Amino acid sequence: MGLVIDLSAIVANWKTLAAKAEGARAAAVVKADAYGLGAERVAPALYAAGARDFFVALASEGRVLRPLLPEDARIFVLSGHMEGADLNGLIPLLNSPEQFFRDRALRPKGAFGIQLDSGMNRLGFEPGEWAAIRAEALAASPALIMSHLACADEPDHPANTQQLAAFRAMTDGTGVPRSLSATGGILLGPDYHFDLVRPGIGLYGGEPFGEARPVVTLALPVIQTREVQPGESVGYGYSWTATRPSRVATVAAGYADGLARALAREGRLQLWAADRAVPVIGRISMDLITVDVTGLAEVPPALEILNARQGVDDLAALSGTIGYEILTSLGRRYERTWL
Ligand SMILES: *Cc1c(COP(=O)(O)O)cnc(C)c1O
User: Alanine racemase C-terminal domain location, by residue (predicted)?
Assistant: First the structure.
């Protein structure tokens, strides 16, 4: 019951992605608590499997992981050196001239990397800014130069080759290890791999890595079941009304647990009792979801909403979002078990 996270599947996905980028170091992106699955468990498991490079969004996330990983693990901070950040033992990916000068003034001997903008216009030095400080930055031996692809999940998007060319133009001949690709970029092929790849979502079983092993099972405890007569309604707004004698199960999770109301908007959300699907009926409440279990001979103690049949991308499609958002929204109230 609760949220079961298969660490061996995460490790297997990391190894498969690493093998696709042969010759490059395979890092692991563990920002946002390893996409909601528990960075304090995921990062040490990937270290044990051979990962030595980890990426977090914020220095505060890196601070939590630093004592859990041996010294030869490098923890890169994607937001770089923000004012007031404690970067002791971490490697900021400096992403503007302002950050560069702040970092060099405050940690003149501290390890750092450089983040370049190759077209996404989100983070990173613009080509002109980079040209202006390039010599000074290279003299200080950056650990890594990286950029990020905006459209890697669309292999035919022209931005991919444009960003690749822009990244090459800014980094060829620097002699510094380079990184351009997250999960989507790994799948674009060897031109995109450079020296280090940064998979995130693919480790956790999400698109665009279609071969991923499923990682999460989420089973919602049944609190009670009841008989409902034809003409009786269920839940807020009476949006579902029985047309036959029905059995309704109420399970303990709702939109406060990351299961958005929009998941049920088209009436197509299903939960699972082993291999049998049962439809969610009525509206999703803050803490409760109602399910039509009339078709089940026996109602199990819990019904699954995430499993090998219904993954994060299936849920995402129902509510008009992406698997990343389903994972990172998973509620704090679930009992978590790591296998
Ligand atoms: C989140 C992120 C990644 C990981 O991306 P996935 O698509 O989850 O593999 C890699 N690099 C950067 C800069 C990111 O922000």
Answer: 215-339
**Do the annotations mark residue 309 as ligand-binding?**
no
Summarize pLDDT for 271-310 with one digit per residue, the tens.
999 999 999 999 999 999 999 999 999 999 999 999 999 9
Domain 216-338 has CATH 2.40.37.10: yes
Confidence (pTM): 0.95
Q: What does the domain layout of the chain look like in residue ranges?
A: 7-204, 216-338
Cα 149 from Cα 159, distance rounded (Å): 8
Pick the residue whose CA is nearest to atom 4 on ligand 1.
Answer: 200
**What is the pLDDT confidence band of residue 9, given thresholds at 50, 70 and 90?**
very high
CATH 3.20.20.10 fits 7-204, yes or no: yes
E strands, 263-332, are: 270-273, 276-281, 289-292, 302-306
* CA nearest neighbour of 146 among 129, 165, 124: 124
